[in-house]
Design brief:
The chain is α+β, with helices and mostly antiparallel strands. It is 28% helix and 20% strand.
């Protein structure tokens, strides 16, 4: 089992081809990096805290929950 990269791989080996995802932090970070490499990010609204998926190309972000609008620096990353 030393060649297993993450817990999902271990679960897949145990259960066969059934798809099982874990919420292990290392896997969450891997998924977030894939999101970011495609020009998106997961952030929190700087006013109400709502989780938002944004496009990195935009200068201003508007939260549809509270209508707060500001620059990226006011919308912290969901995962640091």
């Amino acid at each position: 089992m030393s060649n297993i990269k993450n817990k999902s791989e271990s679960i897949k080996e145990h259960y066969g081809e059934e798809t099982v995802q874990t919420t292990e932090l290392t896997e969450q970070k891997d998924r977030l990096e894939r999101i970011q490499s495609n020009g998106y990010n997961v952030v929190n609204c700087g006013s109400c805290g709502t989780v938002i998926i944004i496009e990195l190309k935009d200068d201003l972000i508007n939260c549809s929950n509270c209508n707060y609008e500001s620059e990226h620096c006011d919308f912290p990353d969901f995962v640091y």
